[in-house]
Amino acid sequence: MTHADDLEELHNCCMDGDLEGVKRWHQGGMSLDEMDEDGQVALHHACQGTSVQVVEYVLHYSLPKTVGLKDKYDISPFHIACENGTLPIVQLLAERDDFNPDMRRNSACFMAARHEHLDVVEYLVGPKEAARQRAIADAQNHQGSKNSARSDSVSNSRSCKLM
What Gene3D superfamilies does the annotation carry (predicted)? Predict the structure, then answer.
């Protein structure tokens, strides 16, 4: 196995929620802050999964400000968590001292709304705006029109910026 293969295995353990595997790779010398070819570190991959315990472990042993570290696609672990819709992980990241509150809006909110993670939208922008988002999502589900869905997605993006 090459070092790149080892890094991929570590990142797969992060995504799969395999805490013992993450610990094994990390304690064996793999850095949680090493970037893969996409510019992602272990936290990016952990936020793709649903294991709060893996995210906590990775955060504990990662460098500060990793929550906002953007990959080559301009996506941070926080954005990934919002897109994935695991509210406890979104909350864990947002409550850190090194979290930039500006990340709660705009693209992170849009990513959560696009995937209909309305509990995450509510957490990010508040219950009133989340109710509006929910009404838009319900209308999309009933209309079924691609053009309408595109229009509503633009509306979702704009409303996330207002809060």
Answer: Ankyrin repeat-containing domain
Write the CA distances from 139 to 5, 98, 145, integer angstroms: 45, 38, 10
pTM (2 d.p.): 0.81
Instruction: Show contacts of 153-160: CB within 8 Å, 24+ apart.
Output: 153/110, 153/113, 153/114, 156/110, 156/113, 156/114, 157/106, 157/110, 157/113, 159/125, 159/129, 159/132, 159/133, 160/105, 160/106, 160/109, 160/110, 160/113, 160/121, 160/124, 160/125, 160/129
CATH of the domain at 28: 1.25.40.20
Query: Which SS3 state, helix, strand or coil, does residue 105 take?
Result: coil
Q: Quick one: which of 95, 103, 51 has its CA closest to 77? A: 103
State the pLDDT at residue 144: 63
Which residues span the domain enclosing 55? Answer: 1-75
Ranges of residues in the chain whose predicted pLDDT is under 70: 1, 133, 137, 144-163
